[in-house]
Amino acid sequence: MKKQLSVILGTAMVCAALSGCSGSTETQTSENPSSQVAEEGQTEETEAAGGEVVELEMLLHKVEVTDIMNTMAEEFHKDYPNITVTVNCPGDTKTVLQSRAVANEMPDMVTFPYDNDFLIYATDGFFEDLSAEQFMKENITEETYLDNQIDGKNYFLPVLSNASGIYYNVDMFEEYGIEIPTTLDEFFEVCETFKENGIVALSCSDQETYVKCPGRQIDRIDF
Q1: Which of 21, 141, 155, 192 is positioned for an S-S bond with 122, CB 3.0–4.6 A?
Q2: Segment 159-182, tens digit of pLDDT
């Protein structure tokens, strides 16, 4: 049975060396003595380079960065010749991952947007707990580390963040004599004022999980 998936969003090459979830390639014995000597020599070179031969697969969800990730995999392989990372970008990561989860053929790594369709793999036990890994503490802030926990555990390494702005209707603020809020408490008071007057105070697109910023990040508004 294949080991659980170690999930990361980026700095993939660093994490790949730590995941060790793929099958290793063993040197087969050959009947030809000269071939056997050559294979033994290759084995010695591999061990000198850093250990057993390891092949890892990364399932990538962003087609536009495939070339970049392949370059990173090649550069990583130069530093760790015994480890080969194959980048697989099918174009529909969600569907592919669902099929592979059912077949118990999960990739070693996967990149994904912050979306419930992917986060559910953590709660369902498909993703490895990365909380204790050193790279988790070295590459992200403590705030990010804590904010991205699921039931107190970290199942992925976030590597980018998006900033969202709030547009407001100047005419409405003037009509109701409301000052532009400068604190979070004032912001909530403004929302209550609009609500009392039958006006929807705040709205956003919520078709995708990753854009539901007001519900998850409202306490981080920079006034």
Answers
A1: 155
A2: 777 676 778 899 999 999 999 998
